[in-house]
Amino acid sequence: MKNITVIGSGTMGNGIAHVFALNNFKVRLNDISNAALDKAMTVIEKNLDRQVQKGAITEEQKAACIGNITASDNLETAVKDADLVIEAATENSAIKLELFGKLDTLCKPDAILASNTSSISITKIASATKRPGQVIGMHFMNPVPVMKLIEVIRGYATSDETTKTIFEIAKTLSKVPVEVNDYPGFVANRILMPMINEAIISLHEGVAGVEEIDTVMKLGMAHPMGPLQLADFIGLDVCLFIMNVLYDGFGNSKYAPCPLLRNMVTAGYLGVKSGEGFYKYSKESKDLVVSPMFLK
Ligand code: CAA
Question: Which protein residue has the closest C-alpha to ligand 1 atom 31?
Answer without folding.
Answer: 224
